[in-house]
Structure formats: C-alpha cells, structure tokens
Amino acid sequence: MPSLLSPFVFEAFPNDDWEAATRSELKEAIISIHKLSEDGFWRVDTLLEKEEALRKGLSGWSCFGFCYEERVNEAKKATKELFDEFQGLAIPNRALINGSPIAWTCAQTHAVLSLHFGANHSRQKFVTIKRWIKEFCDGKVDSGVLANDPTEDWATLFREDWRAPVWLRAWGSKHFAHNPAAWDRLDQQTALQRLPKDETEKLLDGISDWFWTAIECALEGLGRLASISLASQGAAVNSSSSEGQIGGKAQAKQGVEPQIPVYDTDLSKGVREGATVESLYAQLKRIRRLYREKGWPPSQIRQLTNQEMVIAWEWIDRIGDASRKSDFIRISDWDDGDGFIFRQIATLYEYAPHLSKKPTWSTVRDWRKAFRGHLRYRTPDGRKPRS
User: Fold this and answer.
1) 359/220 same-domain check
2) Residues 159 and 304 in one domain
3) Coil, helix or strand for 24?
4) Contacting residues for 183 by C-beta, under 8 A, at least 6 apart
5) Same-domain status, 62 and 98
6) Per-residue pLDDT reduced to its tens digit, 310-332
C-alpha cells in the first residue's frame, strides 16, 4: 500500500493539547463544542452501524469499500461543522487569540478530530478507525467479557491478537494502489483466510493513515480558503471592537460572511490552488508597493499588515532556511512585474507540505488563471463553458 505525506499545513497544537493553548475566557465555549461533537459522533456512528449491517447482510465483505467511503465522507462533514463552530468563536474573539484566527480554528478542530479518531492514542494510534475495521470484519467484542474483568484487559479491549482477512489486503491494494488483480482473483475460501500479525498491523496502519489524511486534507482546504476569504475582505473584523466577546456563530455574523466558497472536492486542483495563489499574488504585490511608496522596512510592513495579509506572512514563515528567508523578504531587491511575483510564489510553494511535486512559476500563474476563470464562469476547472 503506498505511503502518504500528510498535507496538513496549519500547525496543530503540540500533542493536540488545546487546553494549554487556550485562554481561560474561551475554555467554557470550547468545552461546549467538544461535548456537542461527542454526541454528534455517537449519533452518526450508530446510524452508520445500522446501515452497514444491512449492506453486509446483502453483500457481505464486498461492501467494505462503499462503507469506508461513507465513513470518510461523514468525517469530512464533521470536520466542516467543527471548523464552522470554532471559526464562529475565533473571529469575534481575536483579541484573545495569539495569532491567526484561522490557524487557531484549524488547530482546535484538529484537536477534536485527533481525540475522536485516536491520532495520538498512547496505546494504539488511530484506535477508533482500527476498531471500526475490526468490527466490520468480525463484529464487536463481547462487552460483558470486558465489564466483568476488573483488571481491564487492554489486549482484549484493543483486540491486539486480531488478524485481518485476506480480502482486506486485496481491497487495500485495489483501492489505494489501483491494483485490482488480487481482488478480482478472490474466492470465498481464500478471502476469509487470515494474514500474519506483521501484515495485519501494516495493513491497519496504512488504511488508517489514508483515512486520517483525507480528514486533514479537508481541514487544510477549509483553512486555506477561509484565510483567503478573510484576507480578501481586508480582515473585516477588527480586534478592538471584538475584544472580550465570547460566543459563537451569532457574534461572528457581525463580521462579513466569506465570499469565496469553502473547500469543494468538485473543483479542479488548479482552481483550489489558484485561490491561494490569488491571495498570495495580491498580498506580495502590496508588500512591494508599500516598500516603494512608503519606504517602510519589512519589519514595519509586517507589523502594520500582519492581520490583513495573514496568508503571505504565514507562508513566508514556512521558509525553514533562515538565510533564504532573509533573502526572500529583502524587498529592496524585488524586481518589477508580475513574473517576479509568480516566481516568489513558486519559492513559497517549495515549502508547502501538501504538495509532493513543487510547481514552477508558470504553473502557479496558470493556477491563478484557473481560479479567476472559475469566479467568472463558475466551472469546476475555470474554463469557459462551450456554447
């Protein structure tokens, strides 16, 4: 099964410890969101279990792929709902947040999701995802056995001796590596044979990693486009008027609603990346103009534009090489023209972990064209529809 590089760009809290990173004035509201999310996860899980039982009764293990996609889609919906709740809390309480409200929203959302899916579980990473896989294959552990065990048998609880059926490996090869050969050769007897422990663990880790990466991709998309929306409105909510406000969506509506659509998997890669490029393009041009018209040094430009040009400064901060970062923000050396701006954006994309293949400056330019075409024609790829 192919390995993955996590696309998550916004930094999560260390160990997803939201309490240590949150002001006391906001904790009560955040705890409320956590409680609501727990109830929501339970209700969705209960519904999915019933639907999966019906499908397994008709199709057996062959319906696993459909059920897996359903689980991923529900997780993405939960990600969007959590993101909206935390953003509704962050925008009117910017004075209580150290840094970007969107980055804070992403980190808070990530913390809830990490807790639910067991991304940082000390005993078994992704315990929730792995438990679902095991229960789909072989049913649930007898709760009565665990309830009567005062020693709390962790090996039994986590089913550490569990072995995956052969069909699960074949499905993983078909679904993730696009190699259906083993799946097509399966017969009922071979499919139910069990894999050795090491292969089982590798398979569970691989499926869980893909599941989790799909969630982080959704969160990353929400964060990037929400940042663009906020920046495109000139950071509509100012911190002086929002100081001390605690609440959620009702107070957030005092600001301006985003005009750029949130993460949409139906949009082409060019349109999605072009939304980011559009924002970087406008903000880097403004940085250059402020230097030339006002004579401000980079430090003063950042101090005065840190909120309204949050996208550019966050991407610049990703440059890990101190010498290269210093060269990048030496605005006195910046050339004229759009070509230079696109080359600067291509440099920033070299440090974007969500892309394994880094774009050239011309690709970056084409992404922006695709995004602007999408805004004009409302097509998924930004191209003019055929008449």
Assistant:
1) no
2) no
3) helix
4) 167, 170, 171, 173, 174
5) yes
6) 889 989 999 989 999 999 999 99
